[in-house]
Amino acid sequence: MVNNDFKICFPEGGFKDEFFFSCLLDDDEGFVLEVNPINTTKILRIEFGYHIVYYENLPDLPSIKFIEEEGLDRINSQFIIGNNSRYIDRIVNESFGFYEKNEFKHFIFRHTDGLIHVITNEMPILNWIES
């Protein structure tokens, strides 16, 4: 079933280059996703801090199925966000009333080898760094 809630995340960023997944950090400084644009020495750090409740790095074959089922192929961006998804539904249902559905955003980074799903209650901070 196509989910029409998903849309481009960071449209103001004007990201034109393809990004490659570089690093995923989940440590005492919070959760960070690092991606590299093609043909540059810069790294885009997507910093979520401590505001995530779930993340998953999904390999390519299950990602293809998810992209088709959710209709993500209609979105021309590697950075996607939605306020309604089956991931959010699952977290809310498994929380036994602790979480409410409207608390979360479903952030997706689409890369060459799959998808990275992040369920968060705040938008991440973008920082460019030199590699």
What does this structure look like?
With 131 residues, the chain is an alpha+beta fold. It has one domain. Helix content is 15%, strand content 45%. The chain contains two helices and nine strands, in the order βββββαβαβββ. It has helices at 60-70, 86-94; strands at 7-8, 19-27, 30-37, 42-49, 52-59, 79-82, 105-111, 114-120, 125-130. The protein has a five-stranded antiparallel sheet. β2 (19-27) and β3 form a beta hairpin. The termini are far apart. The model has no long low-confidence stretch (mean pLDDT 90).
SSE class: alpha+beta
The portion of residues forming beta strands comes to: over 45%
Tally of domains = 1
What sort of overall outline do the alpha carbons produce when their principal axes are compared?
Answer: globular
Query: How would you state the average pLDDT, rounded?
Result: 90
Order of helices and strands: EEEEEHEHEEE
* Uncertain spans: none
Number of helical runs?
2
Side-by-side strand order of the widest sheet: 1-6-7-8-5
Number of strands: 9
Alpha-carbon Rg, integer: 15 Å
Largest sheet geometry: 5 strands, antiparallel
- The termini sit apart by 40 Å
Helix residue percentage: 10-25%
SSE order and pairing:
Layout: E1 7-8, E2 19-27, E3 30-37, E4 42-49, E5 52-59, H1 60-70, E6 79-82, H2 86-94, E7 105-111, E8 114-120, E9 125-130
Antiparallel strand pairs: 1-6, 2-3, 3-4, 4-9, 5-8, 6-7, 7-8
